[in-house]
Amino acid sequence: MRKTSLFVPLAILMATGAFAQKKSKAAAPPVADTAKKAVPAAPSKPTVKDKVKSSKKHEGLFTLYQDTVTGSVQMYVKKDQLGKEFIYQSFSMGGPTALFLNQNMIRATFLFKIEKSFDKLEFKQQNTNFHYDGENAISKAANVDVSDAVMFAEKVAVEDSLGYLVAVDGLLLGDKLDPVKPVFPPTLPPGSVFNLGGYNPSKSKYGTVRSFPNNTDVLVELAYDNPMPLNGGGKDITDARYVRVKMQHSFIEVPNNDFRARRDDPRVGYFGSEVDDLSSISPTPYKDIINRWNLVKKDPAAAISEPVEPIVWWVENTTPVELREIVKEAGEKWNEAFEAAGFKNAVVMKIMPDNADWDPADIRYNVIRWVSSANPQYGAIGPSFTNPRTGQILGADITVEWRSGAGAPVQDDLFNGGLSSLAANLPWENPAAAIDPSQYTSKYPAFGNRHITTCALANELSMQYQAGVAAIATLDDDGSNGEKKTTAVRELHKQFLYYLILHEMGHTLGLNHNMKASQMLRPDQVHDQNITRKLGLQGSVMDYPSLNVSSDRSKQGDYYTTKAGPYDIWAIEYGYRPFRPEEEEEGLRKILSRSTEPNLTFGNDADDMRAPGKAIDPRVMVNDMSSDMVAYAEDRLKLVNTMMPKLKARFSQPNQSYAELRSRYYQLMNQRAQMVGAVSRYIGGVNVDRSYAGQNAAAKPFTPVSADYQKKAMALLNKYLYAPNAFSTDAALFPYLQMQRRGFNFFNGTEDVKPQTTVASLQMSTLAHILHPVTMSRINNSSLYGNSYSVADVMSDLVKGIFNEDLNGSVNLYRQNLQTEFVKASAAIVNSPVGYDNASKAAALSTLKKIKSMLAAASSPNEQTRAHRTNLNFLIEKALSVK
Ligand SMILES: [Zn+2]
After folding, report:
1. Mean pLDDT, residues 100-125 taken together
2. Would the pTM count as exceeding 0.70?
3. In which residue ranges is the amino acid composition biased (Low complexity) (predicted)?
């Protein structure tokens, strides 16, 4: 009903407003005249009351009047609100998951002011990027070159002594505040991404309007039409031609308190804002601030005090009943960290009653929410929103995808790409693209935005969790009719959920990832619960750790850490310990002086090495564990090889298809991928230390990984990944790895198992890193400051691992692919016009010549091996002839 009428009244209102003003000017004769002549009484000016008589009033920070017939909204702006800063915050409340418009995604945050310009009100976004010291005369020129961003201007409909009434449909309905529709580069092929199409005002409308003393929230449903969609956008899109996106605009009063922004520091990982000090001549003119809650001691003199206002969390009533207490307990675990900062009961966890009459979307409540999406872009997220001027966190939500949280198996599409699609991503196929850092951000866009905390943890975690379930199911001895295994799986699930909540809640407290934290314990300590329950299994819960599963099942300790680690406790102290202003800098310096303690080590997403060629410190990595990753990985690879032969008996159940067996197989392949991936990063790795000069005399910012350890890593890859028999345990499973038919799903590709692709993906994921132009160049550069494992040594060890063992025998299909790809890579390095440095090219050329002479002396026992070697010779000849 409201569809078509929305903008009509707005147009009338604008016309009326303009008309009324003109008319009132004309009708206001000079005072002297009025006394003399009996002119007819001027029609009385419309009042606010007249203008809102058919509207419902929502009184609050900004009082809104919504017309009960048309739905149109007018805002009453008080005169004393002009020129004041307010916070704007948008939330997506449900829309295409393909565009990250999932429920409760915290989106744009900025400060704005409302100013009056002649007969209009202007809504202006503020720029918070700069700081000027008021004592410095240059501050008189503050922000002179900063452009005004006026989002919206509208004629005042009517004014009274206290304020102005203005129509705001043009501000709220549409994308003036938050551009919902993403801007895609024009170079993207049509249909490659889901496209909303054009905004359709006639089908857009208001949802709930709420106004409270400190915030005003307006829910809107924005309609988009795309008459010719080339991309269906997924199963959650009912019809790609017509999509309505639910959004919430929140206008929030800037808190009036004595909260002081706390400075950021490179040694500890908080989300925050970068602020440039344009009145400083320091080499680091940064006034960067961190995001944190406003915790104030009830009793400032006490060493430990309750806060005046704790951080209150509600466990939403959508949470599976049996998990509610676990979630509550996990959240309360953060209180240990706050105690070190001087606060007792800083975090209060409550369970939302099933009959609660409040809306979890109400921004005054921090809620741990659950959803079950068709196409989740994350497993759980923990975003918060802040006052951009000070970093004060004003609210937060955690959303857990039910399937991840409940431990449902993740789809196993990790290794199903063909060799050709794999090749397109190998750095030797396109070295220029490989060294372009924008490749990393386009692969991991979630980490580019410092205000939005997107976290892929839960997906990784559930894949790992499933591997743990498989380990218990296949290997644990159970004389108790399955009871022992059930208990073990329940404990594993509890630890998994604990970890998920601890981690996401850490984000809402302001912490970003610490991908270095799983380095804390040695492999012989990780299953010792005397250590892990007291200190933690990791320095921080903000890492993406490997599942901690022991190959010796009798020694199994904790699968996940169940408490805030030493880094978390220290980081919370940095962010939250209260100081008097004059003591703050010294106090922070004292806390930071501990950053050299091994348990407090830190490195975030920008430092982690998950993508080939990205970053430099192998200890900052996802899906790893312990301070000796080569030893830890060997144990896991052995575990996988022990599990493989037992998988079929355990996971092919009567009266079910082989879909579960197939999914279990890929979960174990994923374990292998994570182990060899983490180990490969040590080759050419450089350890980073961010301590400041004078903190630790022995510390240097850059220390190459020792040649011994690099060689150990290489030996592990040669043995468990490149060797001819590395995958011999898998063969018996191949005839059974069948997907379940559903409709016509095999139209997209044939259903037969493709082990050579799976194995090649795994092998190439490591070579893609070792032979990456950035890695090879670093191996050479670091030889100038301590690295003694040269590119020629690296290539020579790869040749040994990839060629020696079957030189005088039959070369199996895995090895044919591996040898061919290695030769292609070396040839590409030799002939690469860009990307590879001279020493790398020399090493690759020498490698090709060496392989050529090895092949000349090799004997081929069968036709296939002969054909393979003929092809290698051809590739080498071709590469050498270009030279
Ligand atoms: Zn995270």
Report:
1. 92
2. yes
3. 37-46
